[in-house]
């Protein structure tokens, strides 16, 4: 039997769990759909889902397990929780930004944050930014922070110019 990860996010969708899982698996390279479970007759009076319809999609993104649940329209995603994608290069930032933001809300793009077409919030973060913001008191760090606050998609070269003054 496969080992189950102790902690894994479960994303609640109205009815788009399978489509969302396919979307994410298509973006991240070492990813796959692991299993799909379906609603049964049991509990229909509670879940109100047709027998055989998709209930949960188990999937992995870069080895991190996720579940996507078709739970109905009761809950919606918001920015209080986001998924972070750490990137080493501008090419990686561009790759993930372009794909994750496609069909998403352009008004929800700020400081490396975006909202995808399913309403899930993502942060596409260059790892160099963590180092630049490490000493919040330094002039360099403050310049990098000011530059980042003006960006939608993070531009590493722009951050570096600001950081170096």
* Broad shape: elongated
User: What does the main sheet amount to?
Assistant: 4 strands, mixed
Can you tell me the residue ranges where pLDDT is under 50 for at least 5 consecutive residues?
none
Cα Rg: 19 Å
Q: What sequence of helices (H) and strands (E) makes up the elements?
A: EHEHEEEHEEHHH
Helix content class: 25-40%
Estimate the strand proportion: 25-35%
Number of strands: 7
End-to-end Cα distance, whole Å, is: 55 Å
Structural class by SSE content: alpha/beta
Number of helices: 6
Average predicted local confidence, pLDDT? 95
> What oligomeric assembly is this protein in?
single chain
Strand order of the largest sheet: 1-4-3-2
Descriptive account of the structure:
The protein is built from 6 helices and 7 strands. The protein has helices spanning 17-27, 44-47, 90-101, 127-132, 139-149, 156-164, and strands spanning 10-13, 31-38, 54-61, 64-70, 82-87, 113-115, 121-126. 32% of the residues lie in helices and 25% in strands. The strands form 2 sheets. The protein has a 4-stranded mixed sheet, with helices on one face. The longest helix is centred in the middle third of the chain and has 12 residues, at 90-101. It is elongated and about 65 Å long. Strand 6 and strand 7 (121-126) form a beta hairpin.
